Give the backbone structure.
Amino acid sequence: MKSIKPKILLPFILLFILSCKNESKSETAIISENSVHYAKGFSIQNYDGYSVVTVKNPWPKATKTYTYILKEKDGIVPDNLKQNLIIPIPIETIVVTSTTHIPSLEMLDEVTTLVGFPHADYISSEKVRARIDAGNVKELGNNHDLNTEIILSLQPNVIIGYGIDNKNPTLDNLQKSGLKVMLNGDWNEETALGKAEWIKFFGALYGKQKEADEIFTTIEKDYLNTIEVAKRAIATPTILAGDMYEDRWYLPKGTSWGSLLLKQANGNYLWQETSGTGSLSLSFETVFEKAKTADIWITSGQFSTLKEMTDMNPHYAEFDAFRNKNVYSFSRKKGKTGGILYYELAPNRPDIVLKDIVKILHPELLPGYEPFFFEKLK
């Protein structure tokens, strides 16, 4: 009997081991593949009890990938992922560092979780400004020199940072102090819908992925519908963008999101053939030679009237678009402390920006529509 017993037990032992392995697999089985489609800088994969958020392009030419584990209350994180930053969700308090993060909180109805922000005067959102005035959102100083003492006193569940390179000693020090820091690269996206899709990043933090998906789907649908409307235009007006800052003229490069918006609105942006996603830096003479006869001029947000423009540079009046009063600015809406709403909201709502531009270039295609961000300068 002793010699037979192990043979009898072996199948049961194997069955037990296999069942444990299967159980382990079910605990970490993927529920949904990456739900991010346009954004190139992050991905989200959902598992039973936790999600894996991967940020791979937080600044241009970044070589490091950042992995964050968002753990639900009773979720079990596998051992092979525990070396990554683990953040319990849904979060209850947050510090963000860019105004482009604010609209996601507002659209997800999570403004009350914001406890700190650097240079709060830049914020235009009325809901957030009310919380700032009430003392519920603390001023944190400069983005790359955050007031660590205040942040440590706030003890936020997470800090959402961004960088133009991999050097941010303030964020490093906060992490060493035990605070949880995630990087957000929305500003580095090359397409309008790619920027807007970062609402899903915030949706995952609040356990509101479904709500974030629905919000983005609405934005996506309206954006794509407006592209189809723009295709019906008969003419393709030529466009000049930007203006002088100090002694250089800055305007978007041809593959930047701003340039792509002008193209999708069925406009002929005069520098659309250039490559790159940042800004061109040109002399006045170079711009004047190419764009003197441009039909439309879309300036930066630094001017509110035509007179302000010529006070800054009398030669602006030599452009045909200026003479014909076809100059537009996105500085129409400002927060009560002077922040321009466009800088805050436009990356999150490209559907509105595109509709505004189509109205400027092809007013006959959108009868009755009033631009939200843009105004014709007088």
Notes: Residues 5-27 form the longest helix (23 residues). The first strand starts at residue 30 and ends at 32. The radius of gyration is 25 Å.
